[in-house]
Amino acid sequence: MSTKRKLGVGVISLGWMGRLHARSYRALSERFPELGVEARLVAAADPIEEAQRAAVEDLGFARACADYRELLADPEVDIVSIASPNFLHEEIALAAVQAGKPFWIEKPMGTSAQQSENIARAAESAGLVTCVGFNYRHVPAIEYMRELIRSGKLGRITNARVWFIADYNSSPRSPLTWRASREKAGAGVVPDLMSHGADLAQYLIGRIAR
Ligand SMILES: NC(=O)c1ccc[n+]([C@@H]2O[C@H](COP(=O)([O-])OP(=O)(O)OC[C@H]3O[C@@H](n4cnc5c(N)ncnc54)[C@H](O)[C@@H]3O)[C@@H](O)[C@H]2O)c1
User: Fold this and answer.
1) Cis link prior to 108 (omega < 30° from 0)?
2) pLDDT tens-digit readout, 161-185
3) Which of 69, 71, 83, 78 is nearest to 13 (CA)?
4) 136 CA → ligand 1 middle, Å
5) Distance (Å, rounded) from C-alpha 187 to C-alpha 194?
6) CATH superfamily of this structure's domain 5-132
7) pLDDT tens digit string along 118-154?
8) What sign has the CA pseudo-torsion 135, 138, 140, 141?
């Protein structure tokens, strides 16, 4: 019998990122055996019925529901991924804080700096372990670059140029989604892609002053 600590996972929203989070949790035990942790896909929440079906039949969740509140109330859910469109992040994150569930929230945290601050403050005052989806930090080349910079081997860094190459939203024939709505996304490419660049520059070099 496995001696690994079992962690019950809840994934809120099963779009591009929610499915990727689910796959990653499934790979945890194999990829990082030294953690001694086994993630169990307990529940997924998405209003789309097809996503609920796929959650159980294709992705291996024990159950699926439409309302994220049901997932947050589930005592078997220990940790939560919030992989929803940006305009839902604040509401869902504050509910996760209320429910006392540690969470990984996708970037950008909110649709405004104020929303992001509200989320950060609420999680901090509840003493929850949280993480924002700036996943490029953990790419081995980035970790190595950070080591080189921190050790002083590259001298004083005076500027950073980040080039993010992506074309997923470039075709006028692609479907109109929440990403193209200022109200739902917060803004355009700046929070969607540039947030990764700003995060990496700060992670590698230090706070951007202005
Ligand atoms: N870290 C990264 O590199 C990265 C990459 C892509 C996206 N993201 C972020 O992930 C988040 C999700 O993006 P995506 O591309 O997966 O979106 P998506 O459009 O593919 O999926 C969104 C999902 O949310 C569901 N949803 C809608 N209303 C809901 C509700 N009330 N409750 C629960 N679920 C609901 C939809 O049914 C859909 O399945 C965004 O914040 C985005 O910025 C991060």
Assistant:
1) yes
2) 988 888 888 888 988 999 999 999 9
3) 83
4) 18
5) 11
6) NAD(P)-binding Rossmann-like Domain (3.40.50.720)
7) 999 999 999 999 999 999 999 999 999 999 999 999 9
8) positive
For residue 52, how far is the Cα from the chain centroid? Answer: 20
Ranges of H-type helices in 58-173: 68-72, 89-99, 113-125, 140-150
| The pTM of the whole model exceeds 0.70 | yes
Ligand 1: atom nearest CA of 86 is: 41
Sketch the domain layout of the chain as residue ranges: 5-132, 136-204
Q: From 84, 107, 169, give the residue whose CB has the most ligand 1 atoms within 8 Å, as the site to mutate.
A: 84
Q: Which two tokens stand for residue 180?
A: 């193209």
Ligand 1 pocket, residues with Cβ under 6 angstroms? 12-18, 45-48, 51, 68, 83-86, 88, 106-107, 133, 135, 177, 192
